Amino acid sequence: MTTAYIALGSNLENPGRQLQRAVNDIGSLPEVELSGCSKLYISEPVGPEGQPDYCNAAVRIETTLKPLALLDAMQGIENDHGRERSVRWGPRTLDLDIILYGDDIIESERLTIPHYQMHVRNFVLCPLLDIAPDLTLPNGKQAKEILQEIGTSGLDVMAEKYPWH
């Protein structure tokens, strides 16, 4: 089994509920075992102006799925939640990003691991540190040190413990 981390985000159609359903969907996938879930955060949107704030979280899973099969599974869940990909960084019902997959470094047309912008996104790092407080990234850097550098401005805790209510 490989440990992987998935970042979750939503800012449409009851975002907290979207993320709760997504966590349940991820946990029910064959070859996937949910082993950790972060607090639920609210963050300012990145991208086009005028969109609602985001709900963000992260999960840790153990899986036998290969990276691209895991990506396909995440995109299937996004599609089941009505995800549309028409506007880059636009509002969305659900966004699931594979942040880390073991210690693998992957750069392909479909998938980049570690996620190419995780080091500048506190709404990814804070939830990630909830479930992996001593996480060292494949490049050798400590996730908590990166978060200290970028800060937590614009990020608030919405719910402490999963399931979020």
UniProtKB/TrEMBL annotation:
InterPro entries: Hppk, Hppk_sf. Pathway: Cofactor biosynthesis; tetrahydrofolate biosynthesis; 2-amino-4-hydroxy-6-hydroxymethyl-7,8-dihydropteridine diphosphate from 7,8-dihydroneopterin triphosphate: step 4/4. Belongs to the HPPK family. One of its GO terms (biological process) is folic acid biosynthetic process. Keywords: ATP-binding, Folate biosynthesis, Kinase, Nucleotide-binding, Transferase. Catalyzes the transfer of pyrophosphate from adenosine triphosphate (ATP) to 6-hydroxymethyl-7,8-dihydropterin, an enzymatic step in folate biosynthesis pathway. One of its GO terms (molecular function) is ATP binding. Its EC number is 2.7.6.3. It is an enzyme of class 2 (transferase). This is 2-amino-4-hydroxy-6-hydroxymethyldihydropteridine pyrophosphokinase. The keyword Nucleotide-binding applies. It comes from Endozoicomonas numazuensis. The keyword Nucleotide-binding applies. Residues 88-99 form the 7,8-dihydro-6-hydroxymethylpterin-pyrophosphokinase domain. It comes from the Bacteria. Signal peptide: none annotated.
